[in-house]
Amino acid sequence: MTGRANAHGFGQRFDLPLPLWLWLTGAGATLVLTFVALALFARRRDFGAAFLRSVDLLQFAALRRIAHPLAVVLRVFSCAVFALTLATGFLGNDDAYANLIVTMVWVLWWVGMAFFCALVGDLWEVVDPLPTVYRAAARLIGRRESLGLPWPSWLGAWPAVILFFAFAWAELVWQDKDVPRALASALLAYAALSWCGMLLFGVEVWRSKADAFAMVFRVLGRFAPLELRSATPTEPARLRLRPYAAGLLTEGAVPNSVAAFVLLMLATVTFDGLHETPLMDSIGTAAQTARPVAEALFALSSATGMDETQWLNTVVLLLFPLAFMLIFRVVSACMLRLAGSSAHADLNAMVWSLVPIAVAYHLAHYASLLLTTGQFIVPLASDPFGWGWNLFGTRGQAVNLGIVSPAGYWYTAVTLIVVGHVLAVIVAHIEATRRFASHRAALLSQVPMLALMVAYTSLSLWIMAQPIVG
């Protein structure tokens, strides 16, 4: 097997056919023209009605007959993969790329499942092994599913925000993230925490308020064309076909904790790209040469065992979502001021218009990782523990790490990011027309949001360009 892949770098330099500033200008102009077109031709308040139309696929008898058996098969398979992943982490080879758990967790599950949930539907809602294992254990011991404790209203979804930040820290900062036994221990600890929460508050309450991964895949699933929902004691199963981004339009108020979660998703994937750029290297150099900062980092390192780079990355990672939340609040305040007294007090719903951006950036940023490092699953399928097995005859399968060219990477990234931002402008416009009293108020409210999206488009493209032009 080959050595470790650099997920976001390339072995050759790619010269853009146009200067980078022209790409940034063109992308920003596309967003402005989209806004102008909406202002001129989408004046009716029911402009977004087509987005809300959906088709109930379970009305078709053939789909209704296979839906439940298929869900059962997928859940059994998911639980088997979960058990195998834990077993390989605790018992398998210590080499990260000779052990199934590293590729399974960071590539196939985190990146692959996110891609599927965003582009197809929230499959994690159906195959999540944690509630399946918990419910099976409850039936086996013959006790009720939960103690039914009420969820404190003041707590909102903040536990999910905290847990997702911890996951982002593990992905981007934790040095043991590719150590199989450490990764398996973290996975088992999260499972145990989830099972305790399900016991106290119930499966659905825990998954909707505190389960970071159920929430992140549900947010991505709002963008997808298929609305997938498992049957619950209070709700039947749902399988609906709808236009992309239709699930982002909502009637109800959005809690602050949910808005913070969406912004955290956007902030962490942006940090992931930024911390591999020369700018982040410059920030690190400046921190090490500034005596008070260097002394603080040294003291933290001495007290905790984490090195100075880890602490610096942790601080910057924490500042990113705080900055995103502050900017969103400032933009929201400007929107209210420009819209005048006709505006609704709650503008957290506008946070859903940022989800297409999160989807686009996630696809653009991680596509190369999925296509390159994801190939390791082929030899690992034959030898998941790294013990020298060859169950399916694929152990010696070659891995082509050059499958993604710099040119392909760049053009794909540009397309995804611009399309994602255009969709974000459209969703924001539809949401504004539904929440403000007049067309003029809706348009004025969108000026600060448009400025934010143009700025973020430029930042995103600049970050994506660094591995190939930097």
Set out the fold topology.
Layout: H1 20-41, E1 55-56, H2 61-91, H3 100-119, H4 124-127, H5 129-141, H6 158-172, H7 180-201, H8 203-209, H9 212-223, E2 226-229, E3 238-241, H10 256-274, H11 278-289, H12 291-304, H13 308-339, H14 355-372, H15 377-382, H16 406-435, H17 439-469
Antiparallel strand pairs: 1-3, 2-3
**Total beta strands:** 3
Biggest sheet: strand arrangement: 1-3-2
The share of residues in helices is: 55-70%
Amino- and carboxy-terminal Cα gap: 29 Å
Put simply, the count of helices is 17
Our Rg estimate from Cα atoms comes to 23 Å
Main attributes?
470 residues, mainly alpha, 2 domains, three-stranded antiparallel sheet, disordered N terminus
Short recap of the structure:
This protein is mainly alpha-helical and 470 residues long. The protein has helices at residues 20-41, 61-91, 100-119, 124-127, 129-141, 158-172, 180-201, 203-209, 212-223, 256-274, 278-289, 291-304, 308-339, 355-372, 377-382, 406-435, 439-469; strands spanning 55-56, 226-229, 238-241.
